[in-house]
Protein 1
Amino acid sequence: MKKFLIFTAFAMIFLISCNNSSKTTPDTDSDSDPWTEDSDHNSENDDDNDEIPDSADTDTTHDQQSYCFPLTDSADSGEEDSAVVEGLDYESGFIYLEENEYSLSERDDKSGRARIWYNFQPADKNPQKKPLFVFFNGGPGSSSAIVFLYNTAKKTGDQAFSGEGVADNETNWNQLGNLLYVDARQTGFSYGIIDDPADESNRSAYFSTSNFNVFTDAADFIRVILRFLKNHPAIKSNPVVLAGESYGGTRATAILNIMQNVADYAEKHRVFYDKALFEEIAGHFRETDPSIEGMPSKKDVVKQFARQILIQPLVMGDTQMATAGELLERSDSPLYTIQEETGKQYKKCENNSWNCSKYNNALTYVQNAGRDIYSYRRPYNWLFEYTDVATAKMLQMPMFGEFILNDPTKINELYAKNREGAFRYDEVDGYTRNFKKDTAFENIPEVERIIMQARIEQRNAHPLSSGNLESVFGDLPAYDEYFVDLSYAINFKFYQASVTPYSKINGEMFLENIKTSCTFITQAEEDIIIYAKGIPESTKKFSGVSDVENGEDFFTVHFSDGKAATVTFPFYPESSHSVSVNQPKKFFNDVKNWL
């Protein structure tokens, strides 16, 4: 603890900016009315003129750039490198989540039990002094396999480097810090727990908005992170860097907003209330800093939780999608490149007489032209067919152990005999791997229908190998499975909640967060799903934003109160939605320089 405080004080003396932007105006206290979420479940009807909340717990002594001090080089200076630290070794397992009562949008609810899978990989040198990177993919409903298997961890399954096996990863982020990979509830290796899972009605009840919405999802991850840190005292106080891809950007936004404003949430000034969660957050900070009494302030929290790396993220809700649609109709849009290369004519919405979503129209066009909406230069569904290769490897013993770098046969909760109450699916009519259900499409936004139908078609045409884990860990009932790469039943539920990934509250939280968080967002040229140019442009549609300055590798949001926040925004000219798949070396170096 003493070393960490010394390091923090040293770093704060030598403050540097995240980028070359000018210093921002210091924050001032605000006593404005607390903000709440719009009750309309269909975010497509939200007004574009969205409100940005004032923080009820704003630090008066630090500005946004203060939180971007170096996390790597200064930590190693003057001390002998060490790769072995007691309690910090390659490790995998599960963190148990109990039932938790909470309220969302003034509705009382309760989340169910689960075991959440994690894989931990310590930094190559001096792990006790390095930040903790927490990785997760999005969906919602996706495992974190892609970011884990493709060129961030110690080993890579990328067939471009490993062939049919597993290879050392030259761009492993262990060179930068400690790595923690987490699978969301009911995805990847994580699984739900209920009484009598053989009863289909019990399983169906679990698949509800009680367990699957933006805020309970964020709460799950906060609990996992804090409990992991508690179990690893050597890094308990170290800076935490959230690294989320796609919907993972929404998740990271909610995580940071809850953490940094926990005192305000605990006073019931926000849309979400979870007393047990807030007490767990407070307990963590009281243990790391005994001078803290009650709920930690924003100033307390940002010492540890104030950095985020967002890979092609959804962060501005439906406004981001609508703005991307507008940009995709401009003359410099990549859709015209597709038209030239394929001969398939692109018709803009403005030329049609029917009511047309510009964004949805763009996605449909890309698919009809035979191109991948995640990587427009490549064939239809290229990204998932490519990344399925490494996922299939991970489900094979002994490659599973090679990837996680510890012995999976020693993980008790993996064994069938120890999975009491475990389940994956509500129905078992071939749904586990064939993805034939489609009735729920009627209740989700059109854009999600476009995305999910493409994914289901891809999975039906190319079923993911089930691997040989059952031969080691035991046979499972039909409603359970060792690994699930994507659960679209989860995806559907997220869009039926009072707060969805498209709700404008996500953009409000993101804009609040970047004032006190050092933020890195990728700008992948080939991605149409998250057309990254739409992120800075969409911020202009929120009241409280006066202007946005776009630089070569950054953008700065200027707020009407005179404050500003700069986001690092590097361009990846050869990358799909998954930047670590296509340009891992540049991605690694950009993050290294950003740190």
Note: Residues 214-230 form the longest helix (17 residues).
Protein 2
Amino acid sequence: MLKGVTVSPGVAVGPVRFAGYELDLPTGGRIPSEHIEAEVERFLRAVESSKEQLRELGNKLEEDLGKDELRILGVHVAYLEDPIFLGDVENKIREDQWPVEGALRRVVQDFDRIFELVETEMLKEKAHDLRDVALRVVRNVEESASLAEPIVTSEPHILLVRKLGLSDLFGMDHEQVLGIVAEEGGANSHAAILARSMQIPTLTGIPDLRGRLRTGDLVILDARTGVLHLKPPERLQREFAVRMGESRGVTVFEDAGPVELADGKPIELYGSCGNLGEVEQCRDAGLDGVGLYRTELLYLAHSSLPGEELLQHHYAEVLQRAGEGRVIFRLLDIAPDYRLAGLPNRNEPNPALGLRGLRWLFHYPSLFREQLRALLRQEAGGTVEIALPMVTTIQDIQRVRAAVREERAALLKQGQEIVDEIRIGVMIEVPAVAFHLAGVAVEADFLLVALDGLQQYLLCADRDNLEVADYSRIYHPSLFRLLSQVAKDARLLGKEILLYGETASDPLRLPFYIGAGFDKICLSAVRSSQVRQILSKWRAVDAEALTRRVVKASTSLGLQKILLEAEH
């Protein structure tokens, strides 16, 4: 069992195939001086072929992925037109007499060394993007195809790649690729965003795949728990093959009507979305709306910051695709180690506890105000709901309300048509807020518990750090007691409360959430069918009894045992 970081959840069982290792292979010696011009021509032809491929992919996949995800392809086209990148490769061909493959390899290695010295994940992702572009060019160089192991195969397989990149993602036969495992590549890279949109089970962060596996080896990819099983026994293969069938089956979304417990008590299920395609999935699955729409994609998918007009248009498209369903937009919540185009690099000593969520937005007021204006400029006379990330004090909410009032007045003065109301929700992820809900609830129209963030901060364990994964996933009694208390406090304060996060749809924990009083849950549309089935088997009184037992548990093992016994 090899542990990795989940990029896109799901299960896959099958033989492995390798791709994306061309830049690690030997490229031969230097070329004679009389061949230099011909080699430069080979390079330029490969660049043009690569740009044409990306444009064709954009046209082909526009309906499947939507305009915002496709802008990621535009970032790669920009690299192929970057005079610095083109000049560096050409100089290594002309001055060092390297063949195209060798020149590309040297340029990528130089960038890798530079970006490995920085701590910002965004810059490292740019290095991954550059490697991805170089891979595409190498594959388009004449006579270089023999270096690459074929990606397309008629047999279903799990793709193993050096770095998670667009070239491998788009160079494959989507019908035959069951899943993807990468040695490197962030969970928020361009390729990762698209892998999630395409619902391909994907893991990253598993080193030395070449050394551990051979083409054709059978593996089990469990991207729900972040584990790759090597040489699994037949019993385990059969078990996961069933799970894989169930997982792939729920991608056909059907509206099964209102969600109810076994005793008829209604439960509201909302989507957790980050792009337009996921919004449509929520609508098709019959969910009550979008409980949380992550607004970061436009910023990650662009080589420059999106302006107010683009934001306004995108948010309008989200509302349109959601139909009559509710939509809650989370304000921009940039990861602490990201650097956006045009903004200065920041080296914080402890970024996870530094400028995150609202703190980051307050630090960049022009971006904050721009997003508010785009949200205010939605359908005149309507209502827009927003969620505030990383709220710590009541003053945070008051600052947002003041900014909304000021931007509303400015837009009206300009003669703009705007919404009647912006309803403001508070995300509960800072433990201090969870322990004293009354301290912020008075200024909130509704509350939204960010499960993963709250658990991470409560247990002091980064959920993306494999070295502390056991701590971040532990069934700690304090977390369950706190959640039960938060739900109770919200009822006493008369505030609507929603539950959001990857573990919100965990089959083992779900009955506890219901028993604690969380009857509005945000989840990925692909998990809605399974959640419906689980909820239909529980009565409210039984779930409440389970919750009372859980909050009395004194140890993590004891608590988990209670949940496991209830599952059966």
Note: The longest strand covers residues 11-19.
Protein 3
Amino acid sequence: MAPIPAELCIAGRDLTEPRLTPGGELLGWVVAHAGEAAIELTSGAILGTATGVRAGRGLGGGAWCFTPDAQAVIYVGADGNVWRQPVTGGAAVPLTAHGPERAASGPQVAADGRWLVHVVDQAEVWALDMHTGAARRLDDGSADFCLDPWVAADGTVQWMAWNVPDMPWDHARVQWADLHSSATGAWPGAAGVQQPRQMPDGTRLAVRDDSGWLNVWLDDQPLLGAGGEPYEHAGPTWGPGQRSYAWSPDGGRVAFTRNERGFGRLCVVERTIGTVREVARGVHGQLSWEGERVAAVRSGARTPTEVVLYDTQTWERTVVAQGPAAGWGEHHLAEPLAVEVAAADGAVLHARLYAADEPDGRLIVWLHGGPTDQWQVAFMPRLAYWRSRGWSVLVPDHRGSTGHGRDYQQALRGQWGIVDVDDTVAVTEAAHRHGWGAPARTAIIGGSAGGFTALGALARRGGLYAAAVLLYPVTDLVDMVERSHRFERHYTDSLVGPLPAARAAYEQRSPVLHVDRLTATPLLILHGDLDAVVPLEQSQVLAERVNAAGGRAELHVYAGEGHGFRQPSNQLDEYARIGEFLARHVPIGSQP
């Protein structure tokens, strides 16, 4: 079949955060394209265009909600303020004056329509009386971060909170405040907790990892009985608005997402008897259950991202909207092969192989970012693009990745730059033993934290790779602490250790300080000049030092881009530039 064109990969729209009105009659979702976002409704209305919508990313959200009477939407505008707009498309009215210096997220309206709660700057929880316009801060300031407030029927508001140097998946808690009094408190809970909510009957729900796996819990018991199940029911909290579970209007059933070693599934459990129904394969997220319908975002290796509706009587699925452009049906998309590899210390490592239909001997080892994250088997056009050109693509889940339980994810604490590098090397060597590639025909690609791990693998075993592509890579750990954005500024405290005590480890693991180990492999480095997560200077200094040491580093800077490339012209250039670079350094054929 013909190779997939890059234009197809970047075309289309991003779909996030579908929501049903109470009763389930109307459905809305956020559509983002070319840097702009709005809310589309099944009625045909498009809302939020006057101010723009501050859309969530991926399976996150926190951008909007319906009012309980279904007469309006409440959304966070691009200016950071909360707005109200009628579903008929009338004029939008601002409800807050936080922006543009500050940004709201997670708006939610109480069932009686009186109170609007939201978070400001991921640090403060506010309640707005919709009748009087009076605003009140609910949190006591004890948390460094707050996300995802939820108004219960009894007038209490609960939200997720944590303090640095922990990240939310290390240690978090649920705090609450009473809208009708000054009472505050915290739920007893686990080291890792997220998505706190409460049913009308008072049952508390959250995703917790007490059992070692992120499972949905009801009050103090796992949804699926003692011990839960050895699958994750949610992803890491990288931002607001994740909704990986939802309950039926009568509270008798709970729908939840399941991560089966990277492969996704939607499930439903009957609370009274504990029977689990496996509804559909595919990565699902942003669940909304109202009336007799469940809405979700659904995706898969062969399923372009779509908004779907399930009939909760038959569980038949209807596709409401598709994000990627039409034309994917003309190309063969394939499910990956789940791979397990034994590490030198006996640990079982996980990866997925996207084998080319017509392999030409070339292999890409592609590392996810984070590093606390995972690429589930969702629709990923860039992987399909390279498969269609003869490349097989191997996606390792080194330790520190999510989707394999708390112990696997926490194994990277203090070991970033060591364990992830060891695991990447082990998975690459196993791929070569299986004949999926050979050192002279293998490229390694990584972005952000994945670029850091890729550089570590090159320094450790450069002979395993013929070329490396680094997208906005972390190269200087001390600089990360000093200049990264607020959310990740303390991330290295847990991944490496606190400064100044761990300075020696920071220096030993920073690639920019050891460029003599990087001269054997040609590097292509791509970076945006507005990156607030990993400063551009990290890539500039790395390229300068590698070339001065006799290596080969090509750096290209994209103007106006941040941590990732959004402009279509730059995205097309990225595909072309990487292709030209790999063509020069990674041969096709069977020669070793």
Note: The chain has a mean pLDDT of 94.
Protein 4
Amino acid sequence: MSKDRLIIFDTTLRDGEQSPGASMTKDEKLRIARALERMRVDVIEAGFPIASQGDFDAVQAIAEAIKDSVVCGLARATDMDIDRAGEAVKAANAPRIHTFIATSPIHMEKKLRMQPDEVVAAAIRAVKRARQYTDDVDFSPEDAGRSDIDFLCRVVEETIKAGATTINIPDTVGYNLPNQYAGLIRALIERVPNSDKAIFSTHCHNDLGLAVANSLEAVLAGARQVECTINGLGERAGNAALEEVVMTVRTRQDIFGCDTNLDTTQIMNCSRLVSNITGFAVQRNKAIVGANAFAHESGIHQDGVIKHRETYEIMRAEDVGWSSNKLVLGKLSGRNAFRKRLQELGVEFESEETLNSVFQNFKTLADKKDEIFDEDLVALATESQLEAENESIKLVAMKVHSETGETPEATVTLSIDGVEQTSTAHGDGQVDATFKAIEAVAKSESKLELYSVNSITGGTDAQGEVSVRLKYDGRVVNGQGADTDIVIASARAYINALNKLRINQEKAHPQLSSV
């Protein structure tokens, strides 16, 4: 018996980007979109085109580049939003517009200040206008999880009549329990007369830690699309994690009457890429993609796995892209082997110049480290691409001095728009002194919100990956840097964040685009 297709709608580039500090440049979004396409994600929600010119440009670039996935733009139920989204996605092989309006009493009264009849009229108008640009229209009644069921049935029926082909039911604030949310999906499918004319979709937030559970229960209740993000990225506590949804459905085919079309071996590549670009590290015990997901410390567990893997592993690490292959490339490795391994890891280069730059950095690293792991290669590639995209401020040289009983001192030389400037500063530690020296030259007046260090691999010679979050005038950006010297990695991360602050990416407030 053939199984139904479960559509995976990835919103990492839209809802995921609403995490404070997760804002991405156009080129970063394009790299993630290509990785999602390689994973065979069905729908990529590329952004919220009305939010800013930068968002519009990113959605448009993704629409032009992506050939095998549907490319979607988000729009509120207004003519201006829908027109902007339609323009942004029109070059896509398969364009989609996702439009929404709130339907819960609290949202209609406090946020929209609209009567129920006005909301229905606006929803119908929005869907009809979106249909002028594409036959693929996704409608969301925002905060459906707290909406009156009778009113929700009315809105859903009317928007399907107007031409919506997908009805997405958001649990916007992560309020529902699994049985409640599944009951809502089931009731809509049963009570709406024309429900068979549309695909029902989930969009669950993780405020109570139930986003994946709610999504899966909804699938069992008849939903055939899940909106989710890589690593569960998203505002507040995040969204349903794509990797957890996909692998649960794939692993428990005895329960689910559907399956996805994803190439799950690409999951780890996507996870690492999103983590590197956003600076949001994946916790070690995170399901599927955490470093400990397939590790066994207990002697009993180790013995069982050695004798028969299925005793303690319900899926194969290789199926989601984990590999014990260290390759290990060394300083004598050639460019072709280097390029081939990075391609296997999902990293593509825009030009030979970029490849050469990353290859030279690899050779430098190979002189410092005994073993180079896949994680090292991905970090090298990501950092080189970050530098290429945001290069108005560059680190030219730095010297740091620290000894017992003395105040640490750092001297930093930066190139800003081609002009070199040097400054010396003291601080509580080497990193603090370095940041103060950089700030003395850059004069960004930004506030340091987060400083985080992670070891990319094991060993004392491991690269350190540093994330820095800066805030200035309401904008929050993340910067990343990697090096075997943690102080140099810190400087690179701070400079990367400063370069992002210089890019004009003003956006509409995230709550205006929340579903």
Note: The first helix runs from residue 26 to 38.
